[in-house]
Amino acid sequence: MWFKNLQIYRLPVGWTMTAATLEDQLAKKRFQPCGSQDQETRGWLSPTGDEFLVHQVGGQWLIALGVENRLLPSSVVKQEAEERAEALAEQQGYKPGRKQMKDLREQVLQELLPRAFTRRRKAFAWIDPVGGWLGIDAPSQARAEDVLEVLRQTLDTLPLALLRTELSPTSAMADWLAGGEAPAGFTIDQDCELRSVSEDKAAVRYVRHPLEGDEVRGHLTAGKLPTRLALTFDDRVSFVLTEKLEVKRLDFLDVVKENLDQQGAEDARALFDAGFALMTGELQRLLPALIEALGGELKGGDATAFGAVPAPAREPAAAAVAGDPPF
Question: Do you know which Pfam families this protein is assigned to (predicted)?
Fold first, then answer.
């Protein structure tokens, strides 16, 4: 169990929910596969395939959102509806009107949905109830919101706030690059993106390229600001920090995974638990160090109480198109 990305949220100080309470509340929206007329279903799955929705290892919790879509491209529905419209026009002597076309599309959709393939995905979320962290393995905040939205619908209340720091990631990354030195405990790797703040939005990307020297400083002087920077923490975890304080391309290095081999887990479940324990242990060290490097945590940010207020209206889910990106 190794996350590839991390969208970081803060639980409030003194949050008192227990794993048993969370289990009971998640059970109210347990995952169900798509029915014959469902275009999408969402609900909570067991992270490990057993009956429990909250997996606990060493005081750390893991939950998983299941999402199932029917793969019915809108172009297929449109084509079939147009063919039926042509046949109908020959029968009645005139082209179908707007309302008839809408009814035709709905009829086609209802007929084709039960025959469409389904695709199922999982999105994992890590909860550290003592440290006050909620981290979602999602490549963007928009994708993480898929998980948070279902939490909002499921839990009675869950006050959350995005992690915010005194220094913005952009300004901190610019200082590190300009000075040619990473903050304590970190090293600067060889991937970076700098983007102009002017209207042209000119961008420069470095991949596996040394970032020290006058070239990168020249871009900074010209007004480009870093939006992504690859870093390594304590020679144990490498990642890309973004301007939105997202942690992407998480990679737990060999020195961490060697510990997993040394534990000698004998079955898949023990191996899963050992990996999760190692991952969360490293994240519990990484996140405070990253906050310190960014000037400390900004206090007093607004929290959104998921479940305490009505959830925003969600438009009816469209049938998924084959090739849509996963979480």
Answer: RdgC
Residue 276: is it exposed, middle or buried by C-beta count within 10 angstroms (0-12/13-18/19+)? buried
Q: Where are the domains of the chain?
A: 7-72+117-164+300-306, 74-114, 169-293
Q: 65-94 as b/e, with b when 16 or more CB fall inside 10 Å? A: bbbbbbebeeebbeebbeebeeeeeeeeee
User: For the chain, first and last CA: distance in Å?
Assistant: 16
Is 230 in contact with 188 (CB distance < 8 Å)?
A: yes
**Scanning the structure block, which residue is given the tokens 């961490």?**
256
How far is residue 40's CA from residue 32's CA, in Å, rounded to a whole number?
Answer: 10
> Which DSSP helix (H) or strand (E) runs through 305?
strand 304-306
Q: State the pTM of this model.
A: 0.81
Sheet holding 224-233, edge to edge: 203-206, 186-196, 224-233, 237-242, 247-252
